[in-house]
Amino acid sequence: VNDATHRRVLLLDSTMKLITVVADSTSSTANAYGPRSGSLIAYRGDSTLFVDAASLSMLVIDPDGKIARVMSVPRSQDAMSIVGLGGGPAGYDGVSKLVYRAFPGVQMRMSGSGMPTSPAVADTAAIVRVDLVTRKVDTLGFVKIPKTNTQINRSDDGKISIAVEVNPLPVVDEWVVTSDGSVAFIRGRDYHVDWVGPDGTKSSSPKIDFDWKRLSDEQKVEFLDSLKIQRERFEKANPGNPAAALGAALGMGAPPGGGGGGGGAPQIRLETRSMTGGGAAAAPQMSSPVISYVPASDLPDYQPPFFMGQVRADADGNIWVHTTPTKPTPGGPVYDIIDKTGAVIERVQLPEERSLVGFGSGGVVFLGHRDGANMKIERARMR
Predict the structure, then answer these.
(1) What is the C-alpha to C-alpha distance for residues 295 and 174, in angstroms, rounded to an integer?
(2) Is the predicted pLDDT of residue 280 greater than 60, yes or no?
(3) What is the pLDDT of residues 242-259, one digit of tens each?
């Protein structure tokens, strides 16, 4: 278990009891967690990779919770992408390759006159595969991601202001690595799956039946008005946290009537250079980003079937897609379970106030349940 809140990696037994602390942020173990959140990736057999982007390393954890060896990340510039910042953690194909979404982030540089330049943000991202032995990288395909429009201005007193315009109801694609090493691209525009096999062969599945709900112009306006009210409440509860505000603006993408979405806020870094030499100049004063939404006319005419971060692969070769509800539904989130042919074999609703956190073989799922400040992990079976 990656306990990112307390910066620990824990090993539990089959009864969900703690066996050992594999890595910690204190001196209680010989293995340090690191200053940033890491991620766990299922690796060969029953071993696990723990990716530490801060040290550009990957710990190989054996089934007993011992650190068998340490590997460097295959490409240092992709360390945060392998951890999964904004694009989901990497997956292992079972042979020798890691698959992840390449997302280098957005750099805002100062021009020669000292004025910042507004970055261009792409609306697609590459899914790449890197061989851990040869370090060879190849691109498997591209996914549609939320696009943000960013404007940067500098006032006469030198203060920099940033205005970010987001689409809270984006039509996106998702991707997962399945248990047989195939990579599935789940397309949001018409809800079908494109496949890339371990050997590179490509295929596509038919469109999946979905209750497409058309959004009228009035519903689009009502949705944006409601979302603005929700965001104002969030910002009042989290003052002085612009990153969280931006994440809320992108992550509240839910259709009228409920649901939840994902965003994947862009990584923003401001670089300045001194005018007289190659050294770094003092960082200019910056105000909190001003976040706005696109006009109602820019929202899609039909609600998307899913949002970013809402797709998982189980241990039995199936894909779980958390679909957006077309009408208010009591209970927890609803998932389409898609098999290797790209067909929905079952629809499953989780219990109320539960979230999907992992899988076991034979239809076993692990659910997260928030209990005050703690998160409880529960084991359940589909039948």
Answers:
(1) 25
(2) no
(3) 555 555 555 444 444 333
186 Cβ contact partners less than 8 Å away, ≥ 6 residues apart: 173, 174, 175, 176, 192, 193, 306, 311, 319, 321, 338
Mean pLDDT of 67-73: 92
Closest CA to 344 of 186, 197, 212, 224: 186
Q: Is the pTM for the entire model greater than 0.90?
A: no
pLDDT tens for each residue of 23-34: 988 766 667 887
Which residue do the tokens 């032995």 mark?
133
Closest by Cα among 80, 242, 218, 235 to 160: 242
What are the structure tokens assigned to 316, written together?
């039995």
Q: What is the pLDDT of residue 241?
A: 61
Q: From CA 142, how far away is CA 173, in angstroms rounded? A: 9
Tokens of 47: 């071993």
Amino acid at site 123: D
- HEC string of 235-285 equals HHHCCCCHHHHHHHHHHCCCCCCCCCCCCCCCCEEEECCCCCCCCCCCCCC
Confidence of residue 263 (pLDDT cuts 50, 70, 90): very low
Q: Cα–chain-centroid distance for residue 129?
A: 17
Cα 32 to Cα 9, 21, 27, 156, 367: the distances in Å are 10, 11, 8, 46, 27
